[in-house]
Amino acid sequence: MRPSDGSLLTAIDIERAFGARRALAGVSLVVHPGEAVLLAGPNGAGKTTLLRCLAGLARPTRGTVQVHGRALRVGDAASRRHIGMVAHQTWLHDDLTLLENLAFAARLHGMPRPREVAAAALERAGLGARAGELPPSLSRGMQQRAAIARALLHEPDIVLLDEPFSGLDAAACTALRATMTGVVAGEGAVIVVSHQPNEVWDVVTRVVGLRAGRVMFDTPKTDTSAALTSELSELGVG
Prior knowledge:
By secondary structure, this protein is an alpha/beta fold. The protein contains seven helices and ten strands.
């Protein structure tokens, strides 16, 4: 059930500290169905840390993350069923085949017929012929395609992507953009980190700029927004 404001994901005054250093210094964000948000900012801005907090993989030092109006806590399986994340790590087990990896993920999400679900996901990712292979035997691009298939296996309505185009060929990049568009069209939401806004510019609806763990701007994207282009340039992005 969604909260009264219809939001899928809400971050309220999120802080995340590592000793004396604050990676996030009071970030608030509300994401609604049909939005694709680009998180932009220089290295060290807190983008990956924020995604990890939003995914329930890291506990904020202060503040709250809500998924469908429910407070998200580390290990909260019920809320995390709504979330799919592609991180810098593939989260694939090297000693399991691609099919076994995805079937294992399907079982974690309580999905029926996990091997069938996994096989279908690999086919959609163009990896059906590689289902019996171990991740280390594959190229970086194929591993990334498998990681994306794993993240979307349970059809989450909140998709978090951290530099997801890394290692992908042109066809896979096109397919990923189409997937993002499909999530948004299906009343889900996407939050993507990319150092190259042009990779996702046709998909995103909104841009949030981060610097030193703070939101510098939160702006709807328009194709001809000179002000937005200027704001990105000031962050060293673009």
